[in-house]
Design goal:
21 strands; 5-stranded mixed β-sheet; mainly beta; 0% helix
């Protein structure tokens, strides 16, 4: 669909369609960057850089959009949850109001929240987060090189405490059974709450719920293949539905670090 007209997202690890700004995708890098969110036009142009104030992330791996925790406005939920060495006991999710890019001077978010959690067992790695549209629940997907992955949930996130996730499902990992081929690197929830995207290194899949947000039965759903690869996304770690929910976007990290990666769009067939 386009090529990123910037090198700042060489390690693009997550993206989500903007609710407040037409034709904008919010993206971020993983470890090594500050708490920067990049507003990218769907033609690949860098429109703005917004920094979440007071945050020094370790490894941001995914981003979601949902109602703000106070029930007012649209917020971006930023998952500082990367744990490659499985040595982080407490992980962070930062929530920031979505900035209106139509103003002349782009401000930093003034309304922010921080949620912390731990696993109910030894730490694991994860790179995928989805949030209920009303912000009342969130789900995190295990990144593991194996046939099955666990799905964790957190109900009614609260600040000033370290919550413990609960395991709500174990799913057969989608993807090809080759080394690293089934590791979940991104996820996104359809605006209706009825569909879920999961991305692994070898492709993208969509799950369709019988009832909204039915994550407990996710393991029994046979996912639909969106696409294998593509080969032009050598390290695919980002996926999201577009704003109206009638298609989806994908982008990859650039293993060579040069940036300017291709941006793909897949229109929904039904």
């Amino acid at each position: 669909m386009a090529t990123l007209q910037t090198a700042v997202l060489a390690e693009a690890s997550g993206m989500v369609a903007s609710y407040s700004n037409p034709n904008i995708l919010w993206m971020h890098n993983d470890s090594g960057d500050a708490a920067n969110l990049y507003a990218i036009s769907t033609d690949g142009t860098l429109v703005a850089t917004v920094k979440i104030p007071g945050v020094s992330p370790v490894d941001i791996e995914d981003i979601a959009r949902a109602t703000c925790p106070d029930g007012e406005g649209s917020c971006l939920w930023v998952a500082d949850i990367g744990n490659n060495n499985q040595d982080r006991d407490v992980l962070d999710i930062h929530v920031a109001e979505e900035i209106d890019l139509s103003v002349s001077n782009i401000p930093s978010p003034t309304r922010t929240w921080r949620y912390q959690y731990r696993y109910p067992h030894d730490p694991v790695d994860s790179e995928a987060l989805v949030v209920a549209p009303d912000g009342s629940r969130l789900w995190i997907f295990e990144k593991v090189d194996g046939p099955n992955a666990r799905v964790y949930a957190l109900e009614n996130p609260q600040e000033e405490t370290v919550a413990t996730l609960s395991i709500v499902a174990t799913i057969p990992s989608p993807g090809l059974a080759i080394p690293y081929g089934r590791m979940i690197t991104a996820a996104d929830l359809h605006p209706s709450g009825q569909r879920l995207l999961i991305r692994v290194y070898t492709g993208s899949w969509e799950y369709r719920f019988d009832s909204s947000l039915d994550f407990e039965n996710l393991g029994a759903i046979e996912p639909l293949t969106v696409a294998l690869g593509p080969l032009t996304e050598a390290q695919g770690e980002a996926i999201c539905y577009d704003n109206p929910g009638t298609g989806l976007w994908t982008v990859s990290e650039d293993p060579e670090g040069a940036g300017h990666q291709p941006l793909h769009h897949y229109p929904c067939q039904d």
